[in-house]
Amino acid sequence: MSETPSTEVKHGATCAVIDIWEVLGKRWSLLIIKNLSTKETIRFNELKRALSGISSTVLSERLLELEREGLVTKKIYPEVPPRVEYSLTAQAKELEVIIKELARWVGRWKRPQSVAAPAATVAKKEEQSSTTTAS
Amino acid sequence: MSETPSTEVKHGATCAVIDIWEVLGKRWSLLIIKNLSTKETIRFNELKRALSGISSTVLSERLLELEREGLVTKKIYPEVPPRVEYSLTAQAKELEVIIKELARWVGRWKRPQSVAAPAATVAKKEEQSSTTTAS
DNA sequence: CCGTATCCCCTCCGATACTG
DNA sequence: CAGTATCGGAGGGGATACGG
After folding, report:
1. Strand C contact at CB of residue A2, distance < 7 A
2. What is the pLDDT of residues B15-63, one digit of tens each?
3. What is the CATH number of domain B13-134?
4. Largest CA distance in chain A
5. Is A107's Cβ below 8 Å from some Cβ in B?
6. Where does the sequence pass through the membrane (chains A, B) (predicted)?
7. Does position B98 have pLDDT exceeding 80, yes or no?
8. Is strand D within 7 Å of residue A74 (CB)?
9. From the Cβ of B58, is strand D under 7 Å away?
10. Residues of B in contact with A28 (CB under 8 A)
11. Average pLDDT in the B95-116 region?
12. A125 to chain B: which residues are within 8 Å by CB?
């Protein structure tokens, strides 16, 4: 997970996507973004409570990663007791739109059939097009 | 990774997204989809070679997962030597569009600045809007 | 050629404890 | 309240070897 597998892929774009995926694919990241998007601004423990089950360690870690990626901004109020507020950046909000699209796509395809029984198609001897013959 | 953390999230949609994320977030999944999308149909070892670095074990595993999710179809030709061809389903192609969008988004925001120096904003005592007062 | 079985490592995550 | 330090367990991924 720490490094991109084969960076020299044909179309280039995917590399960057994978990069983002490495961050977003980690546990909680997505839920953090979601909570941030629905509440606009949120404090550390508030977020922690909303994600009940997460530990401070991991939450802090995820938040740091997201900040490094420019998806989350952190605002520190030098008070006592300390207050820190997290919020999404504009770019993260753009991302959220894409995620919503993804969600819509998921819903569109997962509701109808039960998506079981893969049962690979077995072609008959008379195949329609054998592009690659055996080596 | 095996189970969804807190399924009872406010907006629901995310759960399904997380589900897909669990599959797509795994290593190689995205690259597999990419290769499949650029070649339309591909054989096992051909794919393996294209993803140089992946092991048969993992490739087979990913392929099975993607098949279970209805993103990939498998076509077995009962010949000798055996031939198996993988290809994307229509739904996966829809997904590809979204991924491309994501790629575009990544490019749009990652090229300009180096994305370093998080340096959280420190608010002055006189904050502009304290929505949440201390508990 | 197309996979599965097995082992091992290494990272990630959660729990606990502690500081500013 | 907002985190960091450290530890231990669990699981994913890679290498190797073997079967259909």
Report:
1. yes
2. 778 888 889 999 999 999 999 999 999 999 999 999 999 999 999 999 9
3. 1.10.10.10
4. 77
5. yes
6. none
7. yes
8. yes
9. yes
10. 5
11. 79
12. 78-79
Distance CA B83, CA A102 (A): 33
The residue length of chain A stands at 135
Nearby residues of B58 by Cβ (< 8 Å), 6 or more positions away: B27, B28
Domain boundaries, chain A: 13-134
Q: pLDDT confidence of A125, banded at 50, 70, 90?
A: low
Neighbours of A37 (CB within 10 A): 19
A126–chain B nearest CA distance, Å: 10
Cα–Cα distances in angstroms (integers) from residue A4 to residues B10, B28, B34, B51, in the given order: 33, 10, 15, 12
User: Which residues in chain A touch residue B25, judged by CB atoms under 8 angstroms apart?
Assistant: 21, 24-26
Work out if B83's Cβ lies within 7 angstroms of strand C.
yes
Q: For an interface test with A, give the residue of B26, B28, B32, B34 to mutate (most A CBs within 10 A).
A: B34
Question: Between residues B112 and A18, which one has the greater pLDDT?
Answer: A18
pLDDT band at B112 (very low <50, low <70, confident <90, very high): low
Number of H helices, E strands in chain B: 5, 4
Mean pLDDT over all residues of chain B?
A: 81
Structure tokens at B135: 């508990």
